[in-house]
Specification:
heterodimer, A: 156 residues, mainly alpha, AhpD-like, globular, B: 173 residues, 8 helices
């Protein structure tokens, strides 16, 4: 039996104001720069994109994670990081827990324990930029999923 | 008796209210470049959108995400811009109070809910199609951008537990 991949139905629209796209890119850059940890940034962006089922964002950030030296095994187990033992550091685990809480915001409005755990590993500036990065990828996820942008784009 | 001062905060002297909390983090102070970029993004996303719909969208997303500071800001901005108390009060129950809103406003509110609670259906075809009936392509993507941006403000506000009650209409215009 031959199973053919169903073609992507095509984007709903690739329209996006260049001013919005440019401002989003500048926001992303500011968040990443402030966090100062390119590998962690990609892990956070992949995890949020998994939750939000953003194919375009997963495609892009898995590639970027690999480029920055991340391993295929850690990317494959990212979805199950809480059960992945010492495959992820405490700092990464704290960041991933915060990523999940901020992404699924309506579930529990970022519980004190999750926030405190992240605050233990990141200083005020680091934490502010980590929150910014999680917020930014949630923004990209919304812009891409709402318009059904295919992996690889075009996105605008 | 409870009275309200000009900010809308209770100033009653006989009723004992709970204490105001302190924010978890002054994020804009610790990430000033991010804050500036958010302001620019906000300005870019509101361009070309009906300001009445824009405020309704901001209030509805902030209700869903329970961002107290954002509700404080956008309810006051909407009132200052001439929005009715009734339409603001009824907004979270719009399904039962459709006659306060236009078909275009309801389509925008439904899209707001779908994009905000993204994991609940990932913006279903019927919600997108209904919005596309009322907004042309450019306006629709600006609407999506505006929903995205208020969701971003909500995430900052809720995660860092910003304090409502001090906003005055126009402070961030």
């Amino acid at each position: 039996m031959t199973v053919g991949a169903a073609p992507h139905p095509g984007p709903r629209t690739t329209c996006l104001d260049p001013g919005v796209a440019g401002a989003m890119s500048a926001l992303s850059a500011a968040a990443k720069r402030g966090l100062g940890d390119p590998v962690l940034a990609e892990l956070v962006m992949v995890r949020a994109s998994q939750i939000n089922a953003c194919a375009f964002c997963l495609d892009m950030h898995v590639d970027l994670a690999l480029e920055r030296g991340e391993t295929p095994k850690r990317i494959a187990l990212l979805d199950a990081w809480a059960e992945a033992g010492d495959l992820f550091t405490e700092r990464e685990r704290a960041a991933l827990a915060l990523t999940e809480a901020v992404t699924v915001l309506t579930a529990d409005a970022v519980p004190d324990a999750t926030y405190a755990r992240a605050a233990e590993h990141f200083g005020d500036a680091g934490l502010a930029h980590l929150i910014a990065l999680i917020t930014v990828i949630n923004g990209w996820n919304r812009l891409m999923v709402s318009r059904r942008i295919a992996p690889g784009g075009p996105a605008w | 008796m409870t009275t309200m001062d000009e900010t809308g905060a209770g100033t009653d002297t006989t009723t004992e209210y709970l204490h105001e909390h302190t924010p978890r983090l002054a994020w804009a102070t610790h990430a000033p470049e991010v804050f500036k970029a958010m302001i620019k993004l906000d300005a870019a996303a509101r361009k070309g959108l009906d300001p009445v719909i824009y405020e309704l969208v901001k209030i509805r997303a902030s209700q869903i995400n329970r961002c107290a500071l954002c509700l404080d800001m956008h309810a006051k901005d909407a009132l200052a811009a001439g929005e009715s108390v009734e339409r603001i009060v009824q907004l979270s129950a719009w399904e039962e109070s459709r006659h306060f809103y236009t078909a275009k406003e309801i389509a925008a509110i439904e899209l707001t809910e779908a994009v905000t609670v993204l994991t609940d259906g990932f913006v279903p075809d019927e919600v997108y199609a209904k919005a596309a009936e009322h907004f042309d392509e450019a306006e629709l993507t600006q609407l999506i951008a505006a929903i995205t941006v208020i969701n971003a403000w909500n995430r900052f506000g809720v995660t860092t537990r910003q304090v409502p009650g001090h906003y005055k209409p126009g402070d961030h215009k």
